[in-house]
Design brief:
The protein is built from ten helices and ten strands. It is an alpha/beta fold and about 300 residues long. The chain has one domain: 3-Layer(aba) Sandwich (Rossmann fold), CATH 3.40.50.150. The strands form two sheets. Strands 1-9-10-6-5-2-3-4 form an eight-stranded mixed sheet. Strands 7-8 form a two-stranded antiparallel sheet. Strand 5, helix 9 and strand 6 form a beta-alpha-beta unit. Helix 1 packs across helix 2. It is globular.
């Protein structure tokens, strides 16, 4: 894998107009006090606007927090329990692992392992269904892999992926890092950082800067709900933008550089892959950063 620094944005006008129209129609219906409508398009518009407002209101409560509240953790655990009830293996079985959303992190991890023989451990924050970690652990038995996520169900679901060189930890990664319970020469976020608040993500980076050699991001950049075109690298360091899939868009480059990491690889590109349920103009961001103070 060759490292690069490229940004390719492709937001079809049709999709942008559709989301903008949904927000405007939904806002108008709400202002008129109309709660129920007939017609599929109007129902979609009203739901789109309500989802946007609900998501933004929820994040407004926590936007100045640099860690999750107990209530947020309870909500995440409840959501994860629901997610774990859905079979996951078929998605990986039907597609080459490197072409799946989670699997696209594999070439980045392996590029570091090839270039830096001093790396002996890898930590996945927000592993959820750890098939990708299992694949990496099988390919690299000399490397110790740690996967962390919320809820005891996380460990149960991944029981089949147990190996001598892979460990599953149940808990809040931020607290576990601060307590020294988990660590990794490489720490990666795969469809995880997009769910983390700006101040909390920056706190993660400052903690990781003390011990971690590399941080890796494999994150979706979903189109904003109002149809705007967002280039993450142009966002201010302390700003986050909510997107259409209840995710957040960050300036990942600025966040890692603030903590003292040097960006080695940065690629923003339109997503093309097997998961057809995603937005047609969804993008992905790949980033590898090296800790300039690591020994």
């Amino acid at each position: 894998m060759e490292y690069q620094d490229t940004t390719v944005l492709r937001y079809p006008l049709k999709g942008r107009i559709k989301r903008f129209a949904y927000v405007m129609i939904g806002r108008l219906l709400t202002l008129l006090g109309i709660r129920e409508v007939s017609g599929r398009r109007l129902k979609q518009a009203l739901k789109h606007f309500r989802d946007k407002r609900e998501f933004e209101d929820a994040y407004r409560q926590y936007e100045n927090n640099d860690q999750l509240t107990d209530q947020q953790i309870d909500e995440i655990i409840a959501y994860q329990t629901h997610v774990y009830s859905t079979p996951r293996g078929s998605h990986f079985g039907e597609n080459p692992v490197e072409e799946t959303i989670q699997g696209r992190v594999i070439p980045m991890i392996e590029s570091i392992l090839t270039r830096d023989p001093a790396v002996r451990s890898v930590l996945n924050i927000g592993a959820r269904y750890a098939y990708v970690d299992h694949v990496l652990a099988c390919r690299h038995p000399e490397i110790a892999f740690t996967c962390v996520d919320f809820s005891q169900k996380f460990i149960e679901v991944n029981r089949d992926f147990q190996r001598d060189n892979i460990r599953f930890v149940d808990g809040y990664a931020l607290e576990l890092l601060e307590e020294g319970e988990i660590a990794g020469d490489i720490v990666f976020f795969s469809s995880t950082a997009t769910l983390i608040n700006n101040l909390e993500l920056r706190r993660y980076m400052h903690i990781l800067a003390k011990t971690t050699r590399y941080v890796v991001f494999n994150e979706p950049i979903d189109p904003p709900m109002n149809g705007a075109v967002i280039d993450p690298s142009r966002l201010p360091l302390d700003r986050q933008v909510s997107s259409s899939d209840r995710c957040l868009i960050h300036n990942y480059r600025a966040i890692v550089e603030e903590a003292g990491f040097e960006v080695l690889h940065y690629r923003l590109f339109p997503y093309e892959g097997p998961l057809k349920m995603r937005e047609p103009d969804m993008h992905f961001l790949h980033l590898i950063a090296h800790n300039t103070t690591a020994t």
